[in-house]
Amino acid sequence: MGLSDAFDISYSGILANRLHMEVIASNIANINTTKTSSGLPYVKKSVVYSEVPFSTELDKAIDRREKLLKGGVEAKVVEDYSNPMPIVYNPGHPDADERGYVRLPNVSLPSEMADMVYVSKLYEANIAVLNSTKKMASDTLQIQ
Amino acid sequence: MIDGIFDPAMSSLEKGIKNAVKAQEVIAQNIANANTPNYYAKKFDEVLEKEVQRRDVPGVNLEEEMADQAKNSGKHAAYIKLLLSKLSILRTIITQGRK
Fold first, then answer.
1. Does B13 touch chain A (CB under 8 A)?
2. B97 lies in a domain?
3. What is the pLDDT of residue B98?
4. ipTM over 0.90
5. Distance between CA atoms of A41 and A50, rounded to whole angstroms?
6. B98: in domain
7. Do A122 and B84 touch (CB under 8 A)?
8. What pLDDT, on a 0 to 100 scale, did the predictor assign at position B19?
């Protein structure tokens, strides 16, 4: 517990939000990718956030050597199959099957754009907390 | 603490500063987890001196956290100011012996 832990928590939030931003960028960039190295169309990626909890006093008492959890957030990238891949009729497409149908990635542009705005606001919120922690730290240094 | 020089107000201020730092950590945790599914927002309880669950339903209210954060940082600054002025009074008293 201390101001440096508060810095680390906000930093983990900023990292998680940046990862989310990168994933959104990759989704939008690949919105028309009909063939990836696996031979299938691009699959939408999602970010799953999970909490890194604070260690309780009990945790500390039970195992002193174990790395204590200082709080924060963790983000993981997963493939998202929640939306079906649209199948369109386009016989002229190089990746069309023998009946002329092409499978497109299951990325929805409006939902990616909405996520992008939300994540950029969360990023700003984390920066705001980081700045106020910074101010608290510099105030503390005034004590002499 | 030497009771003769440092009065109880001083240790209260120290405690206030410590609590403000812990509350800042809890707020940072809430905002970092604003997008975490099934995350229950926490609140620093000044009586229990530990974090407690804020609501019975999961979710983080970003506006609430930002307001708390502003309040908390103001509180911290005020405690530091008070501690500084107490120290400066002490310093004045201590240096009177020279004259």
1. no
2. no
3. 65
4. no
5. 28
6. no
7. no
8. 93
Residue B75 belongs to some domain of the structure:
yes
> Between A and B, how many residue pairs show a Cβ–Cβ distance under 8 A?
103
Closest-CA distance, B84 to chain A, in angstroms, reads 6
Structural domain count of chain B: 1
d(CA B3, CA B59): 46
Interface test with A, best of B6, B15, B21, B44 (most A CBs within 10 A): B21
Integer Cα distance of B23 and B70 in angstroms: 11
d(C-alpha B58, C-alpha B6), whole Å: 44
Cβ atoms of B73 and A135 closer than 8 Å: yes
Helix (H, G, I), strand (E, B) or coil at A7: helix
Give the start-to-end residue ranges of the domains of chain A: 3-140
- The pTM assigned to this predicted structure is 0.85
Tell me if B77 is assigned to some domain. Answer: yes
